[in-house]
Amino acid sequence: MATSTEFPVIDGMIGRSPVMEEVYWLTRQVADSAATVLLAGETGTGKELVAHAIHELSSRNSGPFVRVNCGALSESLLESELFGHTKGAFTSAHENRTGRFEAAHGGTIFLDEVNSISYKLQVKLLRVLQEHEFERVGDTRTIQVDCRIVAATNRDLSDEVAEGRFREDLYYRLNVIPIFLPPLRDRTDDISELAEFFIRSYSEKNNKATPQLGPDAKKVLRTYSWPGNVRELQNYVERAIVLTDDAVLTAEHFPPHVRGLAAIRIGRPKVESVEDLCSELVTRGLEQAGSEANELHSEIVSLVERQLIQTVLRQCQGVQTKAAIRLGINRNTLHKKISEYKLESDSR
Questions:
Q1: Which CATH class is domain 18-182?
Q2: Which CATH architecture has domain 186-262?
Q3: Three-state DSSP class for residue 159
Q4: What pLDDT score was predicted for residue 297?
Q5: Is the pLDDT of residue 89 over 70?
Q6: Residue 308: CB atoms within 10 Å
Q7: 197 with 237: CB under 8 angstroms?
């Protein structure tokens, strides 16, 4: 892989951790190609920023960049949104409407949460990918379109295929160039830089003096698991800026659960990664463990982490890339864990 000097940080993204260097390199490598790109990663990891960077770094940058949130619309509305409709195609179709694919002609269309598209619409999307053509809803006239497709998913599409919710042929069409966006817990070296960027940004927006980020705040921010990723960090920094005029942001300016003083609760408790599981165990069982907490914490982490990684590796037939996506960790991190826990016999 090229060095960061050759491939600088892409616009709008912050961080120089090794996992992000790989994202920057891949983004610049694929930007000016015609290949379809699939961005995989948890919510809040910056998939739209990468999609926009791919467009801006391509020869299509003079054309439109069109974003569609596929998870926000029902099947019928999404079909009309993507492909357009003719007057009278359905009850509320009072005039002809151009769809997002037509609007993206000559540019890039970004299909966010592509995993939420219904099986029926997946057939039409596959045709656009293969033939670059479609018909508006209620019309028989075929429309030719020339646009680059970048898709994003916060789920493992191979699992969706296995469960019968996503077409296998469409998956392979979308997954030509996969780029994995690491969760914030896998790029802790970037957290302080991200926090300081948001501090400057929100101080300026709120006409306030820019406070420093104190060492105790940096420590708690690095140790928190960040289930909401960069977006969650951004929200907490904004709140801290709005609610204080102090010259230094300390740990006290952040919510109790970020400081480890309360359980992490986002709706119904849900565990999506090794780190979340360990954090939940510590919160529930080790809050009163006294001086032995750190030692017990390490034992629990090792025990649970090894068992979970081994189980997922076996479910993925030892394929490390697929296992890493399921676990929500970077492929390099998984490789190190496999070596640490001597799980080579379960991987390939």
A1: alpha beta
A2: Orthogonal Bundle (1.10)
A3: helix
A4: 57
A5: no
A6: 18
A7: no
CA distance 148 to 135: 18
Residue 164 token pair: 């019968």
Q: Does pLDDT of 269 surpass 60?
A: no
For position 55, what pLDDT does the model report?
95
Task: Identify the residue whose tokens are 């030509």.
Answer: 176
> What is the model's pLDDT at position 73?
85
d(CA 51, CA 31): 9
Q: Alpha-carbon distance 114 to 41, whole Å?
A: 12
Domains of the chain, residue spans: 18-182, 186-262, 273-348
Task: For domain 273-348, say whether CATH 1.10.150 is its number.
Answer: no
Q: Which of 267, 273, 238, 274 is nearest to 253 (CA)?
A: 238
* Nearest to 124, CA basis, from 105, 153, 100, 108: 100
CB contact at 8 A, 343 and 309: yes
Question: Above 70 in pLDDT, residue 348?
Answer: no
Show the beta-strand stretches assigned E in the chain. Answer: 37-40, 65-69, 108-112, 133-135, 142-144, 148-153, 177-180, 212-213, 248-249
SS3 assignment for 178-196: EEECCCHHHCHHHHHHHHH
What is the pLDDT, as a whole number, of residue 294? 53
pLDDT of 12 > 80? The answer is no
Q: What is this structure's pTM?
A: 0.71
Total residue count of the chain as it appears in this document: 348
Whether 18-182 and 273-348 share one fold: the answer is no
Q: Which residues contact 298 (CB under 8 A, 6 or more apart)?
A: none
Task: Read off the tokens for 17.
Answer: 């951790």
What's the confidence (pLDDT) of residue 296? 54
Exposure class string for 135-172: b at 16+ Cβ within 10 A, else e: ebbebeeebebebbbbbbbbbbbbbbbeeebbbeebbe
Residues 6+ apart with CB under 8 A from 256: 262
What integer pLDDT is reported at residue 267 of this predicted model? 42
CA distance to 96, 237, 307, 333, 341, per residue, from 303 (Å): 60, 34, 6, 17, 10
